[in-house]
Specification:
With 303 residues, this protein is mainly α. The protein is built from 14 helices and 2 strands, in the order H-H-E-E-H-H-H-H-H-H-H-H-H-H-H-H. The protein starts with a helix and ends in a 10-residue tail after the last helix.
Length: 303
Amino acid sequence: MADLSSSAGGAVPAGTDKTPWRERLAPWAFRAPLIFMVAFFAIPMAMTVVFSVFERTMFWMEPGFTLFSYENFFFSARLTNFLNSMKYSLISVAICFVFGFPIAVFVRKSIPEVAQHRVVLLFILPFMVSEIIRVFALRPVLQRNGLVNTTLMDLGIIDEPITALLYTHTGVVIGEVLSFLPFIVFSGFLAMEAVPKYIFEVCDDLGVGPWRRFVDVILPLAAPGIFAGSVFIFVNGLGVALLPNILGGAGAVNAGLIATQAITALDFPLAMAVSAIMMATLTTLLWIGHKLFDLTKILTPLS
């Protein structure tokens, strides 16, 4: 009778769990991304650093400890090419900022809030086409008898074709700008979303000019998004081997192309060392940016 009364009173028998399956699975919705990042990002990155100090064999590598791959990078023309690619990546970042960030400001200031995300999506949509198609399509546009040179000559602006647009560092910069421009637009828009729209109205009421408003109000508030987008553009400019392969000349070499050439030559420790250097560069930039601007503000609206 006691057992029956206890069951009737609502007691749950031992070993029986009536927790809804959705509640049991809910914690894994947050753990799964962490597990995925550890398994397919953190561990491979750590292995990359370990493999970079392995000794090279004829077709692979063997366990050991040597800094020969790093010496092969820092004490050769590869370092010069890497530094040159950094310079041109910075140029690409500056150009992307000049063209991309005003778009983010315009969308946030002038487009109704219900339509802002759709406008940003429409801008990003063309960039969802395969990058190799977009980059290769630039060749008939930039080449000696391409669309740009033909148009400029027909308008009488130039007398002979401009040869610096393709198979040069200039061509690589153009490719980087057209490939990575959405990064600065999207991250800049995320930062501008945290800026209340009434701030623009207050600036207009106080008679603040466009330049002072941009320098004193918009830039400080949007700095985390600008920096995050700039880092993405900079690192991709260093790492995407496709751009110098298709648009660059003999001297247009970046870290991604150096790693690709090392893999082709079966020098896997060197490729791992280049990857580790790129990883260290990205980590350092993100650490500096977080200390300066607190990058978490991109996803945190202003109170």
